[in-house]
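During the first year of the project, the team set up a workflow for recording each protein of interest as an amino acid sequence followed immediately by a discrete structure-token representation. This format lets reviewers and collaborators read both layers of information side by side without switching files. As required by the reporting guidelines, we include two representative entries from the current panel. The first entry is reproduced here exactly as it appears in our internal archive.
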Amino acid sequence: MHLTDQQGHDPEPNRPAPAHLSGRVVVLVSGLPGVGKSVLVDALAPRLGAAVASRDAARIGSTPGGPRGLTEAIAWRFAHRRLASAQRRAGLILEATVAQHLDAGRSVVVEAVAEPALRQRLRVVALDHDAGFVQLECVLSNRAEHYRRLGLRTEGERFWRTVVASIESGYQVPAECLSLDTSATPNEVADWALSLILSAR
């Protein structure tokens, strides 16, 4: 298991896998926009020696440095046929990316606002590769802090509150998800996430 960036490059090819992790694992980090998924993924992947796969990166063609959240917002706010089709394609690209990393012997941390169908398909990909599958759900119990973070985004708080409200109305979190409150510092949340992953395995 090696650390790779979002484009699949391996900056530390000789990096050893953490001794406390045996076997590959797919970690799905999900949650509403603005709760801290990206920050958690960036802090957690090095701790696991894992690659990173993002649905937003897949949707915009894995453009280096591309926005993770903007396409997510557009797809959910203006969900007509063309964008729904793009979302499905992005899901297929994401699944293929996860499979490629697993084939290469890497664990993968996946970032996505994941509907039930995508969760199930990622689970199947993990099982097909004899890898573990752990779901982490990011939540931000402090609503004021959530709105503050949304306000830091380019499109502004009002836009993102509308997006979050539209997603929340039909958002389903499986009972087997491990919940993480992301109001703490990124390192604290990542350490907590790592302990949950290890206990789940």
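The second entry, processed by the same pipeline in the following quarter, appears below.
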Amino acid sequence: MDTGRAMSQEYAEWVQSAHRAFNEGGPAALAERFWHPEIVWQEPPETPGAGVYRGREEVLRYFEGFMEALGKLRIVDEEVVAMGDGFVVAVLQLAGSAVSSEIPIALSVTNVYKLDANQLAIEVLSYLDPAQALEAVGLRE
């Protein structure tokens, strides 16, 4: 059995399941099922409220505040672009509309998910540029 290929498929399925949970139940559903209690989430400096958030509750508060300001976002497309030992890199397309104006919002973000042995996200590094995400895990585009 090709364990590398099986693990890659498992990681791709993890990404799809996590994003489906986000779309169906928002950040709380994602936090409950896919985040390690001591998760560290780093947002890109170009985004509002950017910073490093530590622990499931702090990361969840950040996302709830972000979505309160911007409105409900949905992941409308995803592409897993790299996988390795305990990490997955996924390019996400998000869509929604601003709470105050109903103006459509479209965002593209690339997340590097570092998973623990139980397939919980222990660290997430978020980038606006996919090339930076690949570089962060030692790959070049």
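For the second entry, the following points were noted during internal review. Residues 3-34 form the longest helix (32 residues). The mean pLDDT is 87. Both points are flagged for discussion at the upcoming steering committee meeting.
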